[in-house]
Amino acid sequence: MSASFATSVTEPVVSPISSASDVPVPPIDILRFNTCGSVDDGKSTLIGRLLYDSKSLMEDQLEALQRSADLTGGGQINLANLTDGLRAEREQGITIDVAYRYFATPRRKFIIADTPGHVQYTRNMVTGASNANLSIVLVDARAGVIEQSRRHTCIASLLRIPHLVVAINKMDLVGWSEARFNEIRAEFEKFLPRLAIKDVKFIPISALNGDNVVTLSDKTPWYVGPSLLGHLETVHIASDWNLQGFRFPVQWVNRPNNPTDASLHDFRGFSGQIAGGIVRPGQQVMVLPGGLTTRVKEVHTLNGPVEEAFCPQSVTLLLEHDIDISRGQMIIGMDDLPGAGSDLLAKVCWMHPRALVPGRKFLLKHTTLTTQAIVSEITHRIDITTLEPGPAPAGLELNDIGEIRLRTAKPLVYDGYHANRLTGSFILIEPGTHATVAAGMLLPAKSVVKPDDADFVI
C-alpha cells in the first residue's frame, strides 16, 4: 500500500535557485477525486468514459483498449479496462487494487483514484480517498441505496472529504425515470445530515452510453444541473485547504554551496511543503519541538523569492537567525497554535491480516517525522455504516476502523484531523517488514503549544 495517506506533505522538494525564466508560473488548479460504490455499479466504466469522451487518451492507449476487447468477451471495447489493469480484475469484471489516472481539460487538471467496491477492500478505498478533494459515490439506479453506498459515504465523511457527488448510474435501465432519481436522492438525504459533508450534488448518468458524463443528455430534460465533468471543472476547491494556522514540516536543509555563485555560498534554507496557513517575509515563527522563535527572512519557490506562499505550495524558507533545525521538526506561526504531545488518541483503519492488539509496537510516520509508537488501548470499533462507536474489541481485524490510544517515543506537533488533514494524519509501519499496516486520523490535542514558554531568539 502507498504511504501517501501520511506523507502527502513531504514529497516535493524545491531549490532556492531561480529557473531560467523570470516569468511567474501561475498555480496549477488540480482536483483530486475518487470513485467508490458497490460492485458492478460502473466505477471503472465511468472513469473510462471520462477519459474517452474528453479525448484524454493517447493513441497507444486506444490501441491497447482495442486489443483487450477479446478478454472481456464479445469483441466490444470495455472502457473499464482503462483502470482495471490487473488480469484478475478484467476477467472477473471487478476492481481490486486502487488505480490512478490523470487527465486535463482547458479549465483544470485531474487526478482520479478508482477504488474497489468489495467490503474486503475497504482499506484500498481509504488509501485512494485519503488525499481527495471530492468523492464520487456511484449508485445503481436499479438497486438504489444499499449498505455499500452508505459505507462509502460514511468513509468519505470520516476522511473529511469536503465535496460529494452521488452519481446515479444506469438510468437508461430504468427508463430515465425522474421519479426513481428523486426516490434515491430522498433516501440518501435521510442520513446525510449526520455526516460532515456540506457540499453534495446528485447527477443522473449512464456511464456506459456517456449520458450526462461529459456532455448533457437530451434524455433528462427534467434535470437542470451540469454534467459530471462540468461539475468537476467548476466545483470550488480553493478554500478546501486550511489557511488559518501556518504549518511547515521541515523535509530538507537546503545548502547548495554553489562555488560559481557567491550569493549561494552561505545559503541555508529549509525546504518542504506548507501543510497549513500562509507565510510571508518578516513573519514571526516558532520551531517545534524546542520552542525557539525567529522571523522569516525570505520565501523562495522554484521561480525565486516571493512575498507570500500558502498551503499546499512547496517552498524554501530562510530565517533571520541561525537555528539548528532538521528534518522532522515543524515551523509554525504564532497564531492558531497546534497541539503537541506523546499521548495520542486517533481513529485508524487497520490494513493487515494480523489483528491489531494492545501492546504492539510500530513506527509512526507523521508529516516528515518518523518515531516509535506503541498501541496502549483500543477504546472501541466504529460501525462504518452508522459511524457509531461499538464496544471495545479484543483487537481490530483487517478493514476494521476503530479508535485507539498511542504513545510515541518523540512528541508530535499536530492538529486534529477535522481541522487539518495534512498535520492530522499518520501511518503505522510494521518495523520488521516495513509494511504500512494502518492509516490514522488524530483527534484534537488536549493541550496546545504555549508561546509564553518559548525561548525567544530576538
Give a brief description.
This protein is α+β, with helices and mostly antiparallel strands and 458 residues long.
What does this structure look like?
With 458 residues, the protein is of the alpha+beta class. It folds into 3 domains: 4-10 and 27-234, P-loop containing nucleotide triphosphate hydrolases (Rossmann fold, 3-Layer(aba) Sandwich); 247-333, Translation factors (Elongation Factor Tu (Ef-tu), domain 3, Beta Barrel), CATH 2.40.30.10; 339-442, Elongation Factor Tu (Ef-tu), domain 3 (Beta Barrel). Helix content is 16%, strand content 32%. The chain contains 8 helices and 23 strands. Strands 7, 8, 9, 11, 12, 13, 15 and 16 form an 8-stranded antiparallel beta sheet that branches. Strands 2-3-1-4-5-6 form a 6-stranded mixed beta sheet, sandwiched between helices. The chain has a 6-stranded antiparallel β-barrel with strand order 17-21-19-18-22-23. β2 (99-105) and β3 (108-114) form a beta hairpin. The protein is globular, with a radius of gyration of 24 Å. Residues 1-26, 85-97 and 453-458 have low confidence and may be disordered.
